[in-house]
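Q: Given only this backbone (305 positions), what sequence would you predict?
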């Protein structure tokens, strides 16, 4: 417990240093929202499937960042950019035998923020290298005994199907901007790989995602200083997650996301998060419940016969 508290503090300091540096440079593109997620998951929670190979902490986000940056330069529709980058990222994660879900967000970010500067890639490499060094020094990855399985094809297929349905829905509603909420898409990749997804977990995750998105919006409107704003939000998120007794690293991206996404998206982030998480995670809940029922029916039929 003491080690975890120290690791939280180290991650907290690293996030504040990143924001402070961006303020000094006068450039919000130096802020990487998923760095906060990685700090919590890699340093504090020491997620096994994130730290099992420390070098992939740098490799995977760097590859997806390059992919997202390159695809953003293509003269194609925003929705196609999002779907294309996610499709390619899933293939890359599969080939690399990696489940580092936050690397999804580093691929989405250059498209969401319309990044056109190469230093974005340098920021990703630099930030993730610090975390890799921390994992190597701690040696925590050496204690992982169970091998990490790669993404299953069924999970990849289901992810793409849910995303396609979501794209069609938001396009029909005329709010294409709502398609890519990075924390939601990262969490979607996490939960779709789980065997069971109870309704109480589904509802709790939607409530927390939406609540912290709205909280980030509200606090940012009250506090104009970015460093003070982030220094308040990070402990608040930790307290909320402790109250709900849940580990949800993806939500730590919301306060930083507010600082980098376009203004129209910032003003509706809470509502967009509610719809995006309710729909996508709801689809996963239905899929898991239906498949579980099918398996039970199959077992019963075998017993009867």
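A: Predicted residues:
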């Amino acid at each position: 417990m003491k080690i975890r508290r120290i690791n939280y503090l180290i991650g907290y300091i690293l996030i504040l240093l990143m924001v402070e540096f961006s303020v000094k440079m006068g450039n919000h593109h130096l802020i990487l929202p998923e760095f906060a997620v990685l700090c919590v998951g890699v340093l504090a929670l020491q997620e096994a499937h994130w730290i099992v190979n420390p070098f992939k902490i740098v490799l995977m986000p760097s590859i997806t960042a390059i992919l997202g940056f390159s695809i953003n330069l293509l003269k194609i529709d925003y929705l196609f950019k999002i779907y294309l980058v996610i499709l390619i990222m899933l293939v890359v994660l599969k080939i690399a035998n990696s489940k580092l879900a936050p690397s999804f967000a580093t691929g989405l970010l250059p498209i969401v923020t319309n990044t056109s500067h190469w230093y974005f890639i340098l920021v990703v490499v630099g930030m993730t290298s610090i975390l890799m060094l921390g994992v190597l020094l701690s040696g925590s990855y050496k204690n992982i005994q169970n091998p990490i399985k790669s993404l299953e094809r069924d999970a990849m297929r289901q992810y793409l199907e849910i995303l396609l349905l979501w794209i069609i829905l938001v396009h029909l509603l005329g709010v294409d901007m709502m398609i890519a909420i990075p924390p939601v898409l990262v969490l979607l990749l996490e939960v779709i790989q789980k065997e069971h997804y109870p309704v109480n977990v589904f509802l709790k995750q939607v409530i927390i995602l939406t609540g912290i998105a709205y909280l980030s919006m509200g606090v940012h409107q009250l506090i104009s200083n970015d460093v003070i704003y982030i220094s308040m939000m990070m402990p608040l998120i930790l307290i909320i997650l402790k109250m709900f007794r849940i580990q949800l690293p993806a939500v730590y991206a919301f306060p930083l996301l507010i600082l980098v996404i376009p203004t129209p998206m910032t003003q509706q982030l809470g509502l967009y998060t509610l719809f995006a998480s309710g729909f996508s995670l709801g689809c996963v809940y239905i899929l898991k419940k239906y498949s579980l029922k099918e398996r039970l029916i199959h077992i019963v039929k075998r017993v009867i016969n």
